[in-house]
Amino acid sequence: MANHKLRKTPLLDDLQKGPWPSFVKDMKQIAVRKPMVNDLLGQLELSYKERVGHWKHGGLVGVIGYGGGVIGRYSDAPEQFPDVAHFHTIRVNQPSGWFYTSQALRDLCDIWEAHGSGMTNMHGSTGDCVFLGTTSEELEPIFAKLTEKDWDLGGSGSDVRTPSCCNGMARCEYACYDTMDVCYNITMEYQDELHRPAFPYKWKFKFSGCPNDCVASIARSDLSVIGTWRDDIRIDQAAVKAYADAGMDIRADVTRKCPTACMRYDGKEIHVNNKQCNRCMHCINAMPKALRPGKDTGATILIGGKAPIIEGALLSSVLVPFMKMDKADDYQEFKDLMERIWDFWDDHGVNRERIGECIERVGLGNFLEAIEVDPKPEHVKHPRTNPYIFYEEYFEDDGTDA
Amino acid sequence: MATQPSAPRKTDIGPPHYEQFLHPVIKKNYGQWKYHDYLKPGVMVHVAESGDKIYSVRVGSPRLISVDVIRMFADLADKYCDGYLRFTSRNNVELMTDKEKNIDPLIKDIQAQGYPVGGTGNSISNIIHTQGWVHCHSAATDVSGLVKATMDELYEYFVDMKLPYKLKLAAACCLNMCGAVHCSDIAILGIHRRPPKIKDEQVSRVCEIPTTVSSCPTAAIRPTTVEGKQTVKVDDDRCMFCANCYTVCPAMPIADALNDGISLWVGGKVSNARSEPMFTKLAVPFLPNNPPRWPEVTDAIKKIVEAYAGDAHNYERLGEWIERIGWPKFFDMTGFEFTKYHIDDFRHAAETFARSAQIKF
Amino acid sequence: MKGSRQAIAELLRARKYPEVLVTFGAHRKTVRSLRSLLYAEEALVKWRAVSMFGWLAAERADLIAHEVDRLIWSLNDEAGSIGRGAAECLGEIGRKNIGLVQHGVDVVIHYIEDPETCRPPNRNTEILLGVLWALGRLGGGKPMRVQKVMPVLLSFTEDPEPAVRGHAAWSLGQIGGPEAKDRLNRLTQDAGVTLLYENDELNEKAVAAIAQEALAHLNR
After folding, report:
1. pTM of the full structure
2. Which domain does A262 fall in, by range?
3. From A254-268, B70-84, B177-191, the region with the lowest mean pLDDT
4. Are C74 and A156 in contact (CB < 8 Å)?
5. How far is CA C184 from CA A136, B8, C128, C210, in A?
């Protein structure tokens, strides 16, 4: 059993108290059999005491054939904490929607217990299942065991990152396209780009089934696909009546909160002017038994979301107001668009420039022209207010009298 | 280290197909769901067109979990859910069963293990967060600890559905914001307040100088020579301590135990419901980094939550509530000081100045 | 096209560099496939991709103008990309068209001093071998370019791993100089063996043979 002395962690121990599940309690239990976690606790305690981290900057490690999927990490105090001298992270590509069976999870746990610290993130911010902490020598054995059980690594660094999606049609009545299938399809289509860096910088796909955007794709992905519909909201007036009978104040909480004032409740029925509906989802969220998205469904494609570094945070902006996500066609329309976008970004993006910043730099109008997408009012909140227009067409004076 | 693999390796196989992980009721009714409802905090029912029902019990999790905890959830899935479960986009666990009678015993077992059931509907649904001192080289603070401390204080809001609407929290250990910190209702952000300490003798050996210079959002970095060595210098007046230079140049560390701290941001949302998605805005520029419990941070967050819970209308997200009552009232109600730091001074700053006479007194 | 990666690999095995552009088009997409082949498990394909980048540097520099920055970044990425083949590629590009790598040459050359990647206890031998080889390509005929790191390069002739000694020896044979000759002399009886890529071919070679050929070349 334990042949290593367990680290004393008075500051961390305080976090074992309280109602929320304690990661310290969990780590201390596994530390009894895992020296790596014991030293991790020791180093974390030192960080809590000194108020600085103790990890070195990066480190080039990986598995043969891949340019990513592993984040190198080395302790800056290896003499003090030898068992976290190497503490690399492995990203394991999660199944769509983070659905698992108990057996699948046990397979992953067994592999990780045998070759690493036993600590995980379920899941990392991008979406991968994260194996937190192993040594360089274990990378190939872990990879071999993962692929043997049909698991693969996720993206990291300047690769295309692992796509993620909401649970979509698996369990949600709002889903306007099959997010789970699209996510899997795109992940398989772009395996090469996911495992090997090819572009100026990282690229993130996130697929949400409706404008509630439960995977925050508009905030966190370069290419956001948000489900929507073109036709009329479906209304079950009997269910509307049931909500009213149960005491819901339909006017105050539903129709008057409509941002386009396109809804009316006459005391009996809800009426929607669908041509004015902007698919915000509020009324549907409030009355899920009575209101549903339409049936002519597809997705809005937006581009350019990212966190602040360097030029500031961006939300994705509209690129294609409506695209059918057609499974029968293998999502070819989407993939053709991706080709044109990536060719543009590869040609024009400077090193470490996200597509959102690239578009800001070259101009959205020029970007749309380059990828052969016609400009539409849906692309902007409103037309420009400044008059500095780079006119490209003009007449020449040919010298003759008119 | 071998440069040539010894046996044929499987690569580029992608994740396992999700279909094998779907509960039979989910698989049968895929794309055929009709509506959902909440039976009680942490318990959802989804009803299909066929009339079939699937119950989901949502469990709060610290995200940083050992294989022992995963196995515990796997065992629960076997006992009550035919072996099926999932994780959510906000790090919770969902155990799914088609048998209503399994719900209460499942909840009892979950709670006996020390895990909370909740996070649904008008609740605080966990705090998405980054690696912090547990694993990140650029962390200004530890987020696992911050999250534990904060969720301990806000626990009642996880296990119940008593808020005016959903409240989504996020925590990031540095400005890289690996998560949706820039778009959450309340966000906790680790920050630095002093410029990097440049190790001149290392810069030209480990850093690419043009990349380092161009990494600075405020053009504060210039190439220079020190004792014959190529290096860079930072104009302290232009440096706002974002640490992006450290990301590209290991010879410019910026972590500073004396001055690093926490900032709080409010009012973001990603959903399109009612109002458009919006960024978080600065509420508190600096709170001390006080592990293990960060009392100053958790107190401030509680103030925000209680002000919101006491005043917001139904279906009003925190940002929408603030838009309605106005920022002056928000600072009044929370007691936070409004300072020069709250006023934007980066690109597009001028767009944030109040250019109307619409003022409340 | 997904099949193109395999098809390009076939052309590289046959050393048909111009045909790659003719068949798949002279555009960035083809270059992206080449970049992907730097990660090929088959060592010969990876090395031929390196040579192809050199060929492009000479013949179609416009197609790889952006590549240099990305290759340099992949040697320094702290977020989990690893620059397999990057150092070799930069060395080869620099050999064929120094103007393309001008701002990055120092980074590549000084990479041999990188404490994490090139030194124990955490060194990545594969990357180290690539850097040693790149030094030979960049310093070959232009010894002044690599003067600053000569002491470090020389020290690798005493490395415990034969592949490292062999690549250091080959590099020194390209660069030359009295100290190089001195070290090479000491390796002429070295029993170690390594895979070495030279003149577009990948062969197993004895360290002793590398040292002897290097000396013969320098004494010409």
Report:
1. 0.95
2. 234-292
3. B177-191
4. no
5. 32, 37, 19, 9
